[in-house]
């Protein structure tokens, strides 16, 4: 009997050790993927943590100072990020890695892809608005006129009638974030097709 128990214990320890090694290997790969996105997008990746629908609530809840900013009105990912120091950045990446580790393979893949696309689409909008100096109101009108991004206005519409040229900066931030989240779920081809529409629409407003 003692011999059988010993074998069972040894087998159990071997299984636990192998499982732990596999889990650590998976976590290392997740950190490697996050590091790759960080190198590609810089601190914009951390803005994405506070902006992408799948990671936003989790990220906000990791720190008292970010949780204190959460309220009835929208708070941008950039504002949340501004409260963090260098040590917080490291902690957040570790927390996000652990969060992703608990997901199924396909869900993990989707989160990585959406974080990547969110940053890419955000850069595209910044290029249009900041580098090209396109008025925010023109971009908002283009977003509202297209079915792929019109739903980004849903939360504003729920409040009642609104005038697009009367939106405050906070409402505009929320709409842009919603639109970027929607486009970040699309394939590259669909994103390019949308940009084609967007540039044509903006060209007509110059």
Key traits:
single chain, 206 residues, mainly alpha, globular
Layout of helices and strands, plus pairs?
Blueprint: H1 2-41, H2 44-49, H3 56-60, H4 64-67, H5 77-81, H6 86-101, H7 105-131, H8 136-145, H9 147-150, H10 154-157, H11 169-183, H12 188-203
Question: Can you describe this structure in just a few lines?
Answer:
The protein is mostly helical and 206 residues long. It contains 12 helices and no strands.
Structure notes:
There is one protein chain. The protein has 12 helices and no strands. It is mainly α and 206 residues long. It has one domain (2-203). The N and C termini lie far apart (86 Å).
Number of helices: 12
Order of helices and strands: HHHHHHHHHHHH
Structural class: mainly alpha
| Tally of distinct domains | 1
Helix content: over 70%
Mean pLDDT: 89
Radius of gyration: 22 Å
List the uncertain runs. none
Report, as a whole number of angstroms, the end-to-end distance: 86 Å
- Envelope shape: globular
Would you count the extended β strands for me? Answer: 0
